[in-house]
Amino acid sequence: MAAKKLIKNGIIVTASDQYEADILIDGETISSIGFNLSSADAEVIDAKGCYIFPGAIDPHTHLDMPFGGTVTKDDFESGTMAAAFGGTTSIIDFCLTEKGRPLQDAIKTWHDKSKDKAVIDYSFHLMIGEMNETVLKELPQVIEKEGITSFKVFMAYKNVFQADDATLFHTLKAAKDLGALVMVHAENGDVIDYLTKEALENGNTDPIYHALTRPPEVEGEATGRAAQLTSLADSQLYVVHVSCAEAVEKIAEARNKGVEIWGETCPQYLALDKTYLEKPNFEGAKYVWSPPLRDKWHQEVLWNALKSGQLQTLGSDQCSFDFEGQKTLGKGDFTKIPNGGPMIEDRVSILFSEGVKKGRISINQFVDIVSTRVAKLFGMFPKKGTISVGADADIVIFDPNHERVISASTHHMAVDYNAFEGMKITGEPVSVLVRGDFVVRDKQFVGKAGNGQYIKRNKYGATSQLKQNQTLSI
Ligand SMILES: [Zn+2]
What we know:
Layout: E1 5-8, E2 11-13, E3 18-20, E4 22-26, E5 29-34, E6 43-46, E7 51-54, E8 56-61, E9 66-67, E10 70-71, H1 76-85, E11 88-95, H2 103-114, E12 121-127, H3 133-144, E13 150-154, H4 165-178, E14 181-185, H5 189-201, H6 208-212, H7 216-233, E15 236-239, H8 245-256, E16 260-265, H9 267-271, H10 298-308, E17 313-314, H11 347-356, H12 363-377, E18 395-405, E19 424-434, E20 437-441, E21 444-445
Parallel strand pairs: 1-6, 2-7, 8-11, 11-12, 12-13, 13-14, 14-15, 15-16, 16-17
Antiparallel strand pairs: 1-4, 2-3, 4-5, 7-18, 9-10, 18-19, 19-20, 20-21
Bound molecules: zinc ion (ZN).
């Protein structure tokens, strides 16, 4: 079990501050922050030359998820281990439901997938595929008993996950009453279905047609529609994986009108572009996910949206499939390529290297985007998402100057390729603690499957109270 630990000489960075101080950890939480702290029975950890960040939180993962007749390569063990190497100490995974099946059954399935496997803490969002009396009756329990306070609605994947507008609208209204945040995958699934059929009829089967049949307009249209329905329902909305200018515009427009709408982007949209889908020998399939990669100029729009606060978070949308044997299922028909990529490990480092190091965002914005804002939006703050007395000791000791090249040969995900292969980045976690215990120490894995705890989250808009018996000593 976690004993006392004293982290000295590091520079603490939160979403609002940056200062040099020591951190005393007692058990699972931070018990003191101050100058020249000492403790006779604490193990001292020297963090000289390093930043101390609150553990990053990934709001968007798909681990051990069935899709298109196969299952993601990374499960809750390999996925959370890779996440930890990247500085992520909590994830929120998507629990998929099926029409006509009790929500509790689906939640149980996700608990079974994760319970003895996760090495970091985890929580679930719940997919809503239909809205009726039975579902409505179950929702209060989902919130109170399970602490699941975010519901995901798909506007795409026709005949699979896609919900109609009435379901989205009804979910928005229910979420408002219950204190939950509605998340949308915003692409127009009907139009994608039309364009896809047209492409196949014309014999256009290569991976690039995945992008060409899901143009930015279908994302912009769905984002705008979801925003309008949110306004009409007087509810709150979180748009996942925003990839293009068209969607950013709709989010900004709604926010300017006072609609409570939040936007997440992903590292792949900030660092990769549509030309990757044209790689020869079917390698373009490695970059097939939805929404698709865009023309390069969209990247700067997304960076500016993060900088200006029009987008607020970064999810990985981790959904990994091997190239050999899984992505290759779509040879000769791009619609059969499993959608998704391996992103959980490098999310934080890419934002630091491409964002902070290149002067696109501040270091405090970086912390907010990968951790603090996520904790606030999804009912985990201030237990998670910051460094403060009484908070969980989820801590990343980060070397800001270490240079490395991303590669599948050195990553920790179970998948056989890395979408960012060959990318040079600066900055890397050295050690990572979850609730006071090292999971990664000096870049070595020292965690254990099953040590990750399930996080019951607070309602949207509510913040948890820290324990009252702790005193601030700074
Ligand atoms: Zn996703």
